[in-house]
Amino acid sequence: MQVMNGFLIGVLLGVSIATIIYFVSIKIYKERYKRNKENEFIYKSILEGRKSICYYFDFEEKRFLYLSPAVEDILGWNREVLYKNSRYLFEAVHPEDVWRLEKNVVGDIDFNKPCILRYKNSKGEYIWTEDYISPVYKNNKLIAGTGSLTDISWRKNLEEMITYKDNYDALTGVYNRQYFQWWFERLHKNQNYRIALIICELSGMK
User: Fold this and answer.
1) What is the pTM of this model?
2) Which of 32, 115, 154, 195 has a CB 3.0–4.6 Å from the CB of 131, allowing a cystine?
3) Residues 6+ apart with CB under 8 A from 123
């Protein structure tokens, strides 16, 4: 009888311990799940709240695994189209920048420098973009790139305006003395240029 009682007590004790472990495990799992969902919400808010286009591009499959909604705000492109066909980038990139994009999609670039490209938006206008790409490696092999692409059209327009004012006369629109000096310094460094110099007297012209 005592053996039977001891056996029952052991069974009940084992069941009780197993039950406690089960409920504790469930609680831990729920807490981890909740924490993961909170972290997912935080990361998603950070990525999708930025004004830059954040993305994850798989170099092996040559397709986007993630694109932030900013691509629709900045370029007016449909994300689903890009998910299905990343070759759309080549249709929208400026013809002079195609060679740069070809290097981008295979990861053949200097990741320490930003990549400047022009893309055509949904209005048919080319905008300047600056792309900072970070490499993703697996077993020492480059597999993907994460990036942040920003519209820098305002900056490029400002640079062009400053360059124009530095090199052109405001009244006549012809090259000024500063441009003349810059060009001659360039010629001095490269002796292979063949040039002719024409000097004209313009005094008294109105």
Assistant:
1) 0.63
2) 115
3) 76
